[in-house]
Write a structure and sequence with these properties.
Blueprint lengths: L1 E6 L1 H4 L1 E6 L5 E10 L5 E9 L5 E7 L9 E6 L5 E5 L11 E3 L2 E9 L7 E10 L4 E13 L8 E3 L4 E4 L4 E9 L5 E8 L4 E7 L7 E8 L2 E8 L2 E7 L10 E3 L6 E4 L5 E4 L8 E5 L8 E6 L25 E8 L2 E11 L2 E12 L1 H72 L13 H6 L2
Parallel strand pairs: 11-16
Antiparallel strand pairs: 1-3, 1-7, 2-24, 3-27, 4-5, 5-6, 6-7, 8-9, 9-10, 10-11, 12-14, 13-14, 14-15, 15-16, 17-18, 18-19, 19-20, 21-22, 22-23, 23-24, 25-26, 26-27
């Protein structure tokens, strides 16, 4: 088992705290070396099974040239210790579906003839006795075609995220049609296993895609093509996308949206490489920001006005994270460093004080609830007013109809009397009346 040696924070981490308001506060609690017998680096593809358990993939630089260099690391105690987990089945990490504390990875396409659904079998990874065990699962994952787009297969080169604020899963993947044309798509699912195509992503092609939640009903997708990264965003959950923004980042991104609408972002914008940014939703927007930098370690606390030369160390800038506590709100981040001819993995525990943001969010919920109740009362009043006006309109129509019938009866009385007199003689009741246009419809009713 690997252990974490706690190191004095200021030596290895550079924390910039910019507080333009008294709101969001970010603290580095401790940093530690994850001791291993391997040269592990490039942490990526993290997945969280529970509040205590998370896993991520690394590269074993010792075997990197042989092609079998991926190594899975897991912690079952909120990052206090880490273990290497081996599996003969491919581990999909953030590209899989987390449901009921288990990770489902797409496996093989299932042949179907009766419908147009594209179906894949799955491999499920579960927690057992402080390890992760993978096995074939009977659970299938289906994809519903969109309009005339019938995918031949799907390349799972993207991410899956559960979007808590919207109550559904989102996925990025590449659709391959019958002519082998590839098109990146955004998918949506209510349960994680039955998917529908929403809209194509505006990338020509991508090697890997990363779906990120940016809070306030906003999502982003970062695409990597060769060693270049670019990003698009959507404010309506994938129904439309922004134009492409090219990034100067050199590593995969991640974001964490907390219940208070505070968002932690890494490699999602053209800031300094290795910069983890925390954004507050308080007005003015992003008034409070904090930065944790995973380079330039051997410096004092850095201010934006500081023009001193920063000393850099070798790092891949690959960073993963997991939330390990909600009270207090704590985030653990894992990153690498090249030191004395060897790669090291480090973990850093970050604590976020978002009490003002929580209060602001709760006030917004109360305000929204009051507004909804007022709208409900107003709609009820409007409905009652519409019913009153409709009743009044019907009464006017009814009164007008009765008035016309009375006028017609007065107009028709002489002709009826004459017909009654003639009936005594002719034994037939025949009404001969003058035609008057305004009473034609009433004349037919008397026949």
């Amino acid at each position: 088992m690997m252990r974490r040696n706690i190191i004095f924070v200021q030596v290895f981490l550079l924390l910039t705290y910019l507080a333009l308001t008294d709101a969001l506060e970010v603290y580095v609690k401790e940093t530690a070396v994850i001791e291993t017998d391997h040269n592990l680096w490039k942490p990526s593809n993290a997945i969280q099974f529970s509040d205590t358990t998370f896993c991520f993939q690394t590269i074993n630089s010792t075997f990197e040239s042989s092609g079998s260099s991926e190594q899975l690391l897991c912690s079952f105690n909120k990052g206090s210790t880490f273990v290497i987990v081996n599996s003969s089945l491919p581990f999909c990490g953030s590209g899989g579906i987390v449901s009921d504390g288990q990770l489902y990875c797409m496996h093989e396409k299932v042949s179907r003839k009766k419908d147009s659904l594209l179906v894949y079998s799955t491999v499920v990874f579960s927690l057992q006795n402080e390890t992760v065990v993978g096995k074939l699962s009977p659970q299938e994952v289906s994809f519903q075609p969109k309009h005339n787009i019938i995918p031949k297969e799907i390349k799972f080169n993207g991410d899956v995220q559960y979007i808590l604020s919207e109550g559904f899963y989102g996925m990025t993947a590449t659709v391959i049609d019958s002519s082998n044309f590839e098109c990146p798509y955004f998918f949506k699912s209510m349960n994680g296993f039955n998917w529908t195509m929403v809209e194509p992503l505006p990338f020509n092609r991508s090697d890997v895609m990363y779906l990120q939640i940016q809070g306030d009903s906003k999502i982003a997708v970062v695409a990597k093509n060769n060693n270049n990264y670019c990003k698009v965003t959507s404010g309506d959950m994938g129904k439309s996308w922004s134009s492409i923004e090219y990034l100067n980042t050199t590593s995969p991104p991640f974001s964490v949206a907390f219940p208070s609408n505070v968002v932690a972002e890494y490699a999602l914008s053209n800031h300094t490489p290795g910069e983890l940014a925390f954004f507050s939703p308080l007005s003015p927007k992003n008034a409070s920001r904090s930065f944790v930098k995973f380079s330039n370690f051997n410096q004092d606390v850095f201010n934006e006005s500081d023009s001193s030369t920063e000393k850099s160390i070798s790092t891949s800038y690959y960073v993963v994270s997991a939330q390990v506590s909600s009270m207090p709100l704590q985030l653990i981040v894992i990153y690498d460093e090249f030191n004395q001819g060897k790669f090291l993995l480090r973990s850093t525990l970050i604590e976020i004080n978002d009490s003002e943001e929580k209060q602001h969010f709760e006030e917004q919920l109360i305000e929204a609830s009051k507004k909804k109740e007022m709208e409900k009362v107003m709609n009820q009043r409007l409905k009652q007013e519409r019913l009153r006006k409709e009743w009044k309109r019907q009464e006017i129509i009814k009164e007008a109809g009765e008035r016309r019938r009375r006028m017609f009866a007065e107009f028709d009385r002489p002709y009826i009397d004459r017909a009654l007199e003639n009936m005594k003689r002719d034994k037939e009741f025949i009404v001969v009346r003058q035609v008057k246009g305004e009473f034609i419809d009433l004349e037919s009713d008397t026949l």
